[in-house]
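Aim 2 progress update. The chain analyzed this quarter is reproduced below.
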Amino acid sequence: MTSSSRTGRRVFAQRVPFAPTHYQCFDAARLIAESVVGIDPDVTCVIGIASGGTKPARLMADYLKVPFHTVTARHNKSDAPFQHATGDVAVRLSNCLPERLSGTVLLVDDIAGTGATFAGVTDALNDRLDDSAEIMTAALFRNRGCAQTPDRWAWTINDWVVFPWEDAHQGQTQPVPPLRQVSAR
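Predicted structure tokens:
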């Protein structure tokens, strides 16, 4: 499946990439999960967008004690830093994903660069949603140029991010500022 562009334009200060630690990413995932406890309707499952969203999504699902699933979505042509998104997102739903989804489905990615990935995956999931089901989006990072802000996120940044589960960046990186609170739309 392909979703056409409903995107902003990623903002890059072109300094050096941010490099969060595993601990920072997992702490942010836990705080985002805590922020959705008690919402109505309850979170019934967490879906991680592969590959970057799978680790934080799994942690959120474990914290919330709900099923964890994955979908695959891609629109960058490579993993090279400082790329602008194409806006065309190829989505592949897993065979293990339930045919029907109810309650609040928490859709997780590591970063919301433009919002196109969340939009593409949401479109791909629409046929599986019960009438009362809702999708809530969450990302560890939100780029300042993101046109469709996720429902929850930990940091807003203006540069590339190199995650601890990716290949090491060759060159300088900058630390992520301390996490003060989870932001909500």
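The radius of gyration is 15 Å. Helices lie at 22-36, 54-64, 116-125. These observations will guide the mutagenesis experiments scheduled for the next reporting period.
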